[in-house]
Amino acid sequence: MSFPISDTVPKEETQAASFIEHFATFDGRGTVIAILDTGVCPGAVGLSVTTTGQPKLIELIDCTGSGDVEMHTEVEAEVDTVTGTRTLTGLTGRRLTLPATWPIPPSNKYRIGWKDSSPLFPTDLVRAQANKRRLRFDKEHHKLLSSATLSIPPAIVSTPSSTSSDAADTVDALKDLAANWSDPGVVWDVVALHDGVKWRAAIDINESGDFEGAKLLATYSDELEYHSFGDDTRLNYSLNFYDDGNLLSIVTLSGTHGTHVAAIAAANHPTDPRQNGVAPGAQIISLKIGDGRLGSQETPQSLVRAGIELARLKPDVANISYGEPGATYNFGKCIEIFQEEAVRKAGVIIVSAAGNAGPVLSSIGHPSGNSGILTVGAYLTEKMPGALYALLDDVPERPFSFTSVGPTLDGAVGVDVFAPGAAITSVPEYTKHSVQLYNGTSMACPNAAGSVSLLVSGLKQSQIRYNPYRVHAAIRNTAKQFGDPFKIGFLQVEAAWTHLAIPSLRHNLDVLYDVKVGGINHGRGLYLRSESETSTEQRQSVKITPLFTNPDDAETTVQMLEFEAQVSLECTVPWIKAPEFVLIASVGREFLFNVDPTGLAPGLHVGDILGYDTNQKNIGPLFRVPVTVCKTDLAADSALRRFGDLEFNSGEIVRKYVAVPDGANFARVETDEFKWTKTFPVTPNFTGELVMCQYCTSLGKTIVSVELEFHGLQVSAGSDVEGSLGTRASGDLIFLNSGNAALAHCDIHSRLRRESISVIAASLDKVQKSLRPIEAGTVSPLKSRDVLPDGRQLYELVLNYSLKVSEEGNVLPFYPRTGGTFYDNFFESVWIFVFDSQKALKSFHDAKIRPISLKEGTYTIKMQIVSCNVQILDKLKNTPILVNFDVKSVTLTSYKTLGGLISDTDKFSATTLLKGESTPFWLSGVEGSALPKFAAPGDLLLGSLKVTDALTVHKVAYLVPSESAKEKEKPVSSSIPETAAPSADAQSAAASGKDELADAIRDLQITHLKKLSDSPSKRDVLLTKLEMEHGKFLPYLVARLEIHGADFEKSKIEEDAALVEKAAAAILEVADRDAVAIYLGLKNDAASGSEASKKKAKEFDVRKDAIVLALLWNARVAKHRLAVIGSETAEVASKAFDESLVSLAQWLGTSDGKYVSLWVWWLKNKNENGTALKAIGKYLGDGKNVASGDVEKTKIWEELVGYKKAILEKLGWKIWVDYEAKWAFKKAPPSYVLF
Prior knowledge:
By secondary structure, this protein is of the alpha+beta class. Helix content is 30%, strand content 26%. α6 runs parallel beside α10, α20 packs parallel to α24 and α26 (1153-1165) packs antiparallel against α27 (1169-1180). The two termini are 56 Å apart.
């Protein structure tokens, strides 16, 4: 018995195999299928050539932007006069050597760019390559560690407790380096040239700078060439150029999914045709919509660009095995392009996967379910279990239990046809295997798309006119029925071909009949679920409007004038009544119909009004008006439902419709047999669907009993002491301090049953801030890739925001106007990128919001909004974004009475409420130290209110109140701290009641000193004046030291060094180190908390800061002298520097970056490199020292990184030198990455 290899891609059941047997040349040849997915691997088996020997993959396009490389930088090569070797300096800093075989551009100029590899590699490959790099790194590192260990003196080895040597510290430093190793990834240099005919580019995939082995590629569609990132990855890539070479797109894969999908649709195996896809003669266009930066998720940007490419390239068929949830149909920029530009104007037949969120009703995701798009569900055929799943027993044919089903929320049927939902076929080379089993509607969709390709291939060769709507009608009306409640059938290719060969009268099959049922939502069908809808007879109007392809063409105008559909209406069920006939012209026609669901039994009921051409009834209905009714079972106890002894076999589904009682806000479902319980929120007065299903490949019979119990605990809140100001429905956001009152009066009401109430508490664990742009955004046109098919240019609005993160934690930036939408997004695209102060990208966000972890610092948020409507973008130039910060939870205590809240007594305790009972409680406010330290007035604290142990269903918000009044303080200069100087002249001045105006003038003069850095003569005059009048005033002395220090940093001459020492000495004299040391050691006064003690503490803090500044500058001067003097005085200078460090450490501490920088320099100067590395590692490894945007910390950080690099180079540790160089580039790239 041979293996059923032909069943690994099911084709017999759909009649695709027999169709090719009957029509050998109708195998897809002459057709093109676009695959909108994760990308298609050009090296995968079966994807090289078609059955006629043509190239299989004719376009590879990245629509996501994840592979974009900015190529604006133009340079000339340096030519070695002896060897003729041409070299460049890349943007990474590497020296790049160009092969002699490369053509020399006529302009003699090259374009250079750089690219981080991570967005280009699939997630699983990123992890695998990182592991390989770590293994290679560890081998080299082990050699260094072994060598360093052998160099430790024997005394240190035998006596571990003895004083550590630099050799031992070297070993420790190496161990610390390895422990903190983090994969730097791969950063490539990219070089492009114009050879006089076209642009070509190559990538330095080895990061060596040597391009000798690099493949010089043109745009893929020009030469159909691709290359690999190496044998260790086997990840293939190709290139595309845009905007006259200014933008290069590196096209790779974001996963295996797209290749598998393409192979189902059109793989061709010349040596074994049994493994072929459905349409082996078809060619393929790959439109990558899965963004590697987001795993493989599609984005509004990638979808719009894919739609633009569909309209430009005009493939015959487009396969979309992707999808996201959506509530609004036939809406959104992406859907608009698909429907109007790709389908109606370009004639593309779009086939889309229904989704895998079934079997619950209305689970179809976008773009499926939208008009003009053929939606495919997944079906399990009789042969598939044996060939694909290796099951012990047979299972019945039926749709896969996971397949999403309709109706759509606006009443349309949703799914158009079912197709086989699994296959074993090709996957990309990087997986290191050739084929794999996948199942889902993602596999059913390309099976159907391949079948459509067969039909189109036959239509083209037979010169039969067709359009997408005609093909849709043929597939729907000829599908094999199997008992689906919505009358959706299983795809039959030969039957559809027979249907397509029937001549159409008056083009009645060449249009899309747009159905709009009357009512507020104008649905494409009638969907009745609520008790009020299903308990009364409904009379509705419906308008049927024919939509024509190419509506602006003259030929279409003729068709519209000639169009006349003489339609008979048939109702498939007795509870629907409609007129017998209706005449429909191109303008459309409206009629009334009745639906009477009152006599229906509980359960799901589906009926249709079918419209037939009276002259050709045999072709099937021209349109259908679907009616779906979900009838509830009215039980005696609406809050408790039990469904006992339900029997299931493979794939069987049981649906129960339950009215959610008024007042319910959560429910619990429990199964007896499996002891499984789940609690979840519900919405009152809606009809819920309880769906139970045994998985379609699960064998045997199962008996299950299910209990569904509804609960209703309603909470209302207000700041009025007499009662609640208003009620918020369960699950809505409840404001606990309306009117900015620091308390909340709440009521809890049990609506359905006896409820156990826990100790009520509100937990607030997020701070939400609203950020405005730093300045008004700018609107500018995008480039050639972003022009809509109708010629409208897309524009971008780029907004910059400053984000201050006060402590490390999770941060969530988002733009609420996108509403989390993808296919039905109003904008063409919205991106949010977060960068640190060095332009390093920290995170990116699109329609799906996701938190990120950020360290303390200041970040730049860049938001890009894309639209063709400039007026709308202009209105958004100052639009805010919201940012949520995770914080340590703040708990609001609950009390029984207002008096209890005020006196902190009579706290709320656990209790029980009977049905209909209520009880009040009071929640405390959040003030003072309880507030997160960075929460400002106007911010929101977000969290939840827990009233029962079962589930948290109430979201709450607390408005951070305005600051409490503070004691009025004497105004002082913001840059000059006030201090009680202990000098005699200051005391006498205070005693004599010195005029405040004079103090203000003095402070202003001190502040003005720094502004005179470009006018030394004016500054010296002012310094002299202040010296005479306020020579013992500490703020003046601090300002003078800072000025002389800045001069010394520039000049490095001894004269300026002496001025620094003199200024430092004056500070140490006035500040009185001994007095400050005694005060700081006692800390008694500050502990009392009085205003006098606080003022004194502030004074001594200012004096301490001045002392530290003086000691720091003394150490810097000593360091300079030690670095420049001769060996004869080195001992004296060394001693002076040592003493300055000791003094500084006493006041500053040894962990402060200012001290660490000096200490490391000293160790490096003494060749104690191991100890220096250890100190650097300790400082850099502390997260609080990485402050993005902090100028002083950034300077220290860069200085220590420079020392580290120099020490590593001196030690000859090349692997660590290269490692640091990579991270240095990634942490401070030359430019912001592109959206």
